[in-house]
């Protein structure tokens, strides 16, 4: 299974949980509906938090990092990186942490954009899943190790997991 989060899954979670809570509200009252909504939001947060530990069980494989090694690039790293994320995407915080660590080492600027409720941007960029790292119109989609990120940011070939 690819290590990326399709935006349709993000939207289904954002629409599905409130709809389920609404149905429960009309059938069982406001306390039951509120409990379903609170449980759904809590489950999403816990899913993202615990995802690195359970990703293999869920069929995504390991999300372990591969160190970048020597991060002194033979050519200059990108100076402006755009990072597209979506809420409830379990891969986005993983890539974000790796980008922040590399940002300190390579000295590039990062702009993070949450596309969860940005259909205009999704259409304009042609995004179908997240996370997405963009540099000068080139994109890297999905979970990426530090090694893959350095290769992408400095334009060096690196193995794709």
Structure explained in plain terms:
The chain is of the alpha+beta class and 161 residues long. It has a single domain (1-161), classed as Glutaredoxin (3-Layer(aba) Sandwich). The protein has helices spanning 7-28, 30-54, 92-106, 119-125, 146-154, and strands at residues 5-6, 80-85, 109-114, 129-130, 132-135, 138-141. The strands form two sheets. A four-stranded mixed sheet has the order 3-2-5-6, with helices on one face. It has a two-stranded antiparallel sheet with strand order 1-4. The longest helix is centred in the N-terminal third of the chain and has 25 residues, at 30-54. The termini are close together.
Second rung of CATH, namely the architecture: 3-Layer(aba) Sandwich
Biggest sheet, in brief? 4 strands, mixed
User: What's the CATH class label?
Assistant: Alpha Beta
The largest beta-sheet arranges its strands as 3-2-5-6
Distance between the termini: 12 Å
CATH superfamily: Glutaredoxin
Class based on secondary structure composition and strand pairing: alpha+beta
Topology as H/E string?
Answer: EHHEHEHEEEH
List the helices and strands and how they pair.
Layout: E1 5-6, H1 7-28, H2 30-54, E2 80-85, H3 92-106, E3 109-114, H4 119-125, E4 129-130, E5 132-135, E6 138-141, H5 146-154
Parallel strand pairs: 2-3
Antiparallel strand pairs: 1-4, 2-5, 5-6
Helix pairs in contact: 1-2
